[in-house]
């Protein structure tokens, strides 16, 4: 079975551009609008890759549409809710809905491998929630971003406001963008600290750069990379002391891996190391 | 009643440059030195605006003096304390004094609308505590900053050290500035991540830019903007998971707002949306 | 007794380039490889300086070797462990070993004075853990860095992953560097937010700049500087509200220091203030 | 459709002894040993009840077997694992397995209604993890408990050690029981603070008492009860200040419920109030 | 000026039964129903005592009415709110209202001296929030308690659910009482861990016992007692390690008090020690 | 080498009453007053046992003196400090002193085996800090306790106030005891939740019971017992969710122990299992 077998679905296509690398492309014309069906599909796809024990070591997320990454949430989904219920019941129902929505968009954090977002064109509203939950963000130089939610009368609630204060650098600038919904360029996104890099060129170039990065990561020990990912995520949310304790427990087992002697052997032999896959498959 | 009616006081003048926008100007000659009386007045003003239910949607804070934002704390206030008490009682008395002082300077965080600091000239000592507690910071290009406290024999305790590690980007540079009390330029402040932007020109230009930004924010849904503010502030101090939970509870109610259909209607009609004020008035 | 008396040891030499300033140089040829013996010596040295009550007010850490700061952990130390034990016992033994290792490398955080790392050449693996635990980082312009651990099959566990998400600015770029082990330049390190500044020149220039900075800090009140350090470290790991509370308790006592009147007196007299040493000596 | 329709499965039978009350009975002969299949079934059942939007307002959990609640984990499940993997991969695989296991046993916490455990006979090992995650615990007077894990060479990891320090009263006694695996009686469990009450009689009496309690709860507003449950669970894990903030946000919406006027109306009329069901159904 | 001068108001009378001891009696006939006016008055009274620097060292809170402590919130206050607003604005308005309400009822926690609740008769709904925020609780033997909120269609939100999981002992029993609103006796309250003691007799006896306890506390060093209070409150909400750090900072100053030699002197002389008052007066 | 070889010192004698069990007796006549020298010796002893890799599986702590456990801190140690320093320097010096003192008394928490305190006679002041940091507490029936610190003009700062709110059951009663310094009996200590049990008889009986308990623990798997201890300590200070995550990481390695098959084998064979020692020896 190839790595990408049976993963593509109606609006998401999945391929294997390099060994152990998956490329996930969003493709819901005309603007990759995220209906509940699409975000469920998206979250389920990432969780399924994890739970099926496929030997994925890095994943690139991009849009298959030529003009944009995504226009954000499908506007048709706003305004649903429970017409007959009282305000308390509506609120509780919405709360549960949001928790599921957050869970789906937060799927990259649960993957044991890095997820790299490669964006171009427009990244609107939910698009920023989506890429914020990824490990790494590359953008093509002409990309335009907007934290659109305030323009529609609501506060972003699927991750943008939870992630940005932690993963970027300048709260003043971040709040300005969040309060005004104004468009900002890739260069401004880089200044905010949202991007590793602005890639010269467009859709093709940014995807190519992201896949190259994914390939570099896929050559490393999956025990080391997945441990690094988990520890960095823990560190983001805990004090230095808490994180050092967690890391010492984690590495108590992880340092017993065969990947260490294999890495040293390969480095000495100037050959490519060969690593066993991780087994995190669901029961 | 106009928005700014009866708000001006001895050392602080308040005007309404745009609908729903307040401009608060510090004006205690010669250097906006903050005596206990001034910081009490400052904190009370912001809390009063909030509690009186005035329909403010953004606020700009600046100095009315031509040469500087503020020279910091009024030196006459240092060295007070309780002469007769033992060291433990002095310490306890000082602790309570500092809590009140912190509460006053932290008032912008309690406002349901964004507070934008627009600074020029000199921003010394307490001036950095003050702007750190604001949402957004703009500085005129010639502005000079200094975390002055160490030069006077003390550690900054009214917010600078609590905010900077979270709202800026470079701990090495931040510690260098905090340990040396050296002057740093607007460009360095921008590199630190303290400013959204350095504004070309001086006092007038930076205030004009800040008021324009305030006007843009004031055109948005107050439910959306105030929710965004509260969630970002929560996010700064909590893990991603904690913040997503809080946000889902918050938006359970907030998504029932009329501002959403009104925003969509206005966008479709290419007209300006009209929003009801928030009611957070004190009993 | 001079400040540096009896502090130098086999692989670490200590001098006093300026009053109240220590210069600690790593000197284990050929590449400053950190064996357990070296990192124990390093941690013990810093703790000893603290506990002996020497009147140190700033410390510069650098390498005495011409080509590099450090090549990281001594590879001979990997692969030890408990051959006969079961995996659980190995894990527990490794956990305790890591806690000690972390404790040693975290020693700069326990010093009541700032520690400034001045690096040049190569900073590999453990080198990044070491400088991350310092207050301030300067690098010579040609310095190359690498978070090397993933290349060896493990996740960095002595501080790099605990500190970087908090003390730098761009999680996307940071994760890219951590997942790939790729070399990055001083300019990239500055973009990451890891450095105060890139210093033109090489080993000599960066050390000179760091010592000058240390001298500037050493002229300030040690009560103020050590309080600022402790409060900033607390702030990094706690919410704004928690930190303001802690600071108010701290300054309840600290504001009773004679350093405040002495600082004010000296400023008025345009003379150098003279401060009593701190006494934090061990029993 | 009745409340319990289509919920019973191979080893778990579900009935509706009172309106809005479910009775879940474990029935895997001979000792209710929990294989992975059983605990999956158990967790899925509770989550399914929640997500299908059935109008359940309280649930009683007990054993259908005459002699005991459960003998704990199915010993056949120990010692599985990944034979070929290295210790690091085994550890990671086990970690993911435990997370799933914990998720299943923690299902009562995710129910929007209270879950009442009614136990008799023996409650061994996993049995204590299971009841610890419930809201309320009743035991028949002859019940014997044991935190069995240490006797088998492991630390309890599915909830016992996470819950007991918070939901009971005496850490000295709790640690004694956890370190020795000794049997303790219902009276001792009550002294520990684990039980609301020891019920005179056996299996029938304790189930009867629990169903009566469930009936009393089912007569109350589901908005009020589910809010109380969520807030108490939050309170267990957060400071007073954090919890008050969370509660104020929660009740901002919840106090708009029709259940308040309906409760007041019914109390005045001395009739039974009638409440709408909650709608927390999954998409 | 006597200690209690000018403190009594319409529904609250204040006396000084012993030196440094205040007795605060609720007296709003017929049932001490808490309108917004009453709880504001209550919170303001306690804060005022603190801020005026009166030399109070312990305070007893009880009801002046013969039959009960309080029937809880004034039912006339429910159902107010903002009739015209949308659900989001109502929610925000309620949120702010609840924060103020919580702030008032939480006033005992802000007092630098212990507050002892002495209850008799009925303690209904808000009554439990009120006594939960006190340091110590005594009840007359016939007292009946009820967490009434669920019966009215809401979750308790002014402190009961925030405090009980931390200050009592048995989560199972606590949840049972909170979900059912059933009456529980003083003996059951003691079993829950809510009371220090059940006092034989009625209103007079319980008040007498509480005043005797207050007198014993008032004889101790106010530096010691107020520090103990603050540290215990901090400890309730933080880990052991966090609390030890906070305590060490606190006592760094507090151990310099003259109360230590004075206590030792008096103990040796078998006389009553004399302590200076604390000075925490507002500016 | 026997387990207790070379461990006894001037005021502390150590013996091995049962295999893998140490008995540590305090013996500084006339009242086991804790000078700095004694508490250093005490903390160093426990840490040394841990770091020397002795195969200890449980430890009993008691007093060798017939009349009491301890009278608390050596009064001669109060009132030291830094006579010449200003209040800020005194405070900092005291802070460091307290941190060391706390570290020594907190040593039982760092032991990988349970520590059981067996007390009789009087347990005064520091005595309660000491036993609070132990895992399990037994008291002879006539034992009298007092949280003495307030009587001497200070707040307990070596653990009593950090531990009691978490390890006991009734905050009202606890605060009453802490604010008044009154003597309380073993029965009252049991009611507080401080003791597992009150042992009939005196010094000999309580020590005998504690040694029997230690023997029972020493027969269990040290991997299981030390893991249980660490997880319970973590659980006391973290939320349920945080603790479940930590436990899953911990047991990922721990479940690979040979102690599980050995425990199962021995249980089947009705023989005593034989376990390898843990190896946590210092470098």
From TrEMBL, chains A, B, C, D, E, F:
Keywords: Fatty acid metabolism, Isomerase, Lipid metabolism. Transmembrane segments: none annotated. Pathway: Lipid metabolism; fatty acid beta-oxidation. It holds the Pfam family ECH_1. GO terms for cellular component: mitochondrion. GO terms for biological process: fatty acid beta-oxidation. It comes from the Eukaryota. One of its GO terms (molecular function) is delta(3,5)-delta(2,4)-dienoyl-CoA isomerase activity. The keyword Lipid metabolism applies. Signal peptide: none annotated. Belongs to the enoyl-CoA hydratase/isomerase family. This is Delta-2 dienoyl-CoA isomerase.
